[in-house]
């Protein structure tokens, strides 16, 4: 089970001058969105009381493999992550797996040089690109989710900002030059150690074509977004939040946590709950 | 030099229904804020045409050391980062440093098992805590920036969301239980491979005390925030943006990139530019 977390009350607001953010999650149940807002004629959030687990999402070298089997707590996940480290990357010494002095979590500690190998979540950055009332999607030409549609996105690299990384990935996957308009969403997937940072963007020129990691790139009108053929839960959530915003007539910034529903397939991109959703 | 990046035009807006975000940075010059808004009686952004470099921020085991000497491009930084990896953490084999097939950046590749060790930026998560028109700060009891003031913040761990991590760090450093109200800022520091995610929060109870990493915790009224004794540029930027928002009467979500001004000391937390600043 996840450790107890602070759940936002729906009446939460900034004491100083009224936070404009609306915490949507309330105590207890998680919030999930309908699997396909278009097929259900509604994108209204509804409650789910299902607990949280996670499953591996695959072995794409650009996507970090999730721990397998699923671990029940952040502490156990952190320990499991550290136990994958058998050797020191700096001196080559064997590691031991202990809680360092003054810390609380198990780490891989080098038995020769004493250095600690910290393991941290990774950021995936991407662009939600609007053009002529349509959205640009790429068909994945690599595993995982080969053949499924995605926003152009990938791991942030050392030396670049999230905005730069999102633009680079868009160039690599869709050969498209974009202008970033604003951050659109931060979606944490804690149990596979990923955080998605998605920017709203527009094409600088109406030119795009599949890069090496894509087999196709297409503009989709909002009613034709292929929700049944999207690659990852993060893409389903991002595009559903975007459709909700379009429907409401107001773009917002969204923060939330994506948790996989227990007992569902790791490849089912609709089997999730969106928890602690806050929006501007 | 940084690679060319997309710079936002001040007229950028969402084509669909008017993006409410205001890209503040314009072509060419970076934007910097005055070093101390209180001493200058203004927090208005002004232009700076200084280029971008970075310096090490220290060796705190909780803070990733920056590359030294400073590297001029993201690609060089990525290569420099990979060259620190001499051995495979999985099998202990020696690494070679090459561009893998189908990729563009130099990586550490194991000469025995062939695995690639990817290096990615890390997220630092923290809370900006309002209480009785004051802000809670912690005096650092560890290096770097020993004895200087900070918001409670630290590295996000595998298995937790950014919000959970921010609450955990607040507990560890200030023994304070908080309710998160909304995301307040994402500040990338690309050249030391860090992204700060700061949440606005409030105390659940008016109780706090220094944890092991703090020598003191205090509530500061907004006019008494110790800008000359803050630990990191990220804290200076966050608190200045917060004061600007207070002054304007409206809280916003902020995205931006912090770059160190060339020729300045790594310990000078005011020697930065805030680039590509976008706010809700």
UniProtKB/TrEMBL annotation, chains A, B:
SUPFAM superfamilies with a match to the protein in the record: Nudix (SSF55811)
Matches recorded under Gene3D superfamilies: 2.20.70.10, Nucleoside Triphosphate Pyrophosphohydrolase
Polar residues: bias regions: 37-46
Domain of life: Eukaryota
Ranges for domain Nudix hydrolase: 120-243
Region (Disordered) location: 37-78
Protein name per the record: Nudix hydrolase domain-containing protein
Lineage, highest ranks first: Eukaryota, Viridiplantae, Streptophyta, Embryophyta, Tracheophyta
